[in-house]
Amino acid sequence: MTTYIMIIVTCALINNVVLIQFLGICSFLGVSQQMKASVSLGIAVTLVTTVSSAVAWVLYTLILAPLGLEYMKTIVFILVIAALVQCVEMFLKKTSPAIYKALGIYLPLITTNCAVLGVALTNVQDEYNLLQSVLAGLGTGLGYTLAIVLLAGIRSRIDESDLPKPLRGAPVVLLSAALMSIAFMGFSGLGR
Amino acid sequence: MSGIMIATVVLAVIGIVVGVSLVSVGRKFHVDTDPRVTEIRDCLPGNNCGACGYAGCDAMAEAIAAGKAPVSGCPVGGAPAAEQIGKIMGVDADAEERKIAFVRCKGSCDVTKERGEYVGIHDCRAAVLSGISIWECDYGCVGFGSCVSVCPADAIHVENGVAIVDRKKCIGCGLCAKACPKHLIELIPESRTQAVRCSNHDKGRAVRNVCNAGCIGCGLCVRQCAYDAIHVDGNLAHIDYAKCELCGKCDDKCPAHIIADLREGN
Hints:
heterodimer, A: mainly alpha, 9 helices, 74% helix, B: alpha+beta, two-stranded antiparallel ribbon, 34% helix
């Protein structure tokens, strides 16, 4: 039991996908302008990482490994992730057009979000079983959501403050992200 | 079966399964969209150049269908596309004429001289930012081809130190005009074939000193024009395209021969 909780904590905090592993930076910086959009992107990414971890594990363990095709994992995972994202997109378009519009171009960009591919590949590398993989995917998604929501909160306060001209826009966002990253380094002692 | 065969078959099978499931999900979650969007999208060129100001042709089609963008908003598709889209939207397309980029500089290597040496990023914008004037003329083409690198149609090239537009290939998107740090590139209507190939606002002698193909503001062209279409403003000749009748007399008298005749064969 402790192992499973530890996997979630590790993936969400200690090895935070955005702030420690520096994966998925594009949408992290791009969508964090609005709180609502960042929450929905976080949920979408969490959904995709969780489901794709499970599907990737099944494909890898049941098809690729027995056939000795381990080297094909990257291309197969990309294929599966792309299809999953497409499904999520169609689902969102049908169920909540408002969120679909708020996410805009960043929703299809989850396809090429290295965070999602990163989880699937790390799971294989760490030789997780199915449940562990799913939990790692869930933890990573939660970590991504946490990071993007925190940044969105910071940015909404930055927007109201009077900044020196050279810092406005992208520079201050990058600085905030860097400080968040340093803060998250503090979790590295949590696992021992 | 060899390894490569197994790999191919496995990937193909996974691809087919994924494809089939995507189709079924797509059917289940099908959303009825405005059919005009697809129709308009088919009329647009589809090279996603972004010259209309929207993020690609899909976004543009949606904007047109929503009435947010004019039917003639695509500078690449020009009049034919505007007409088709106008039919779909049920409005008359008072389409503008197709426009073609034109470089207002004739300062090739043999008419102007180099002043300084620039060692750095091979890009016009970087060179201009560095503050080093490479050519004697401060107004002229830098010749590093920032316009060439943004052109989606391979229609502009730097020849002998100055950018030249291939009028047949040009799609009129205007990306080169935005990229040029010297603001030398102008979009002019296709039928307007007389244009001044210089942007130097300095006085006559100063221009002569730096370039043999520069407008010295002498005004000979103004006196030649029977239609009041060419004027000298700030030591530089300007053609009023609405008045110009394309007679070509201005260039006959121009001592520097910088009024271009862009008709085919010239």
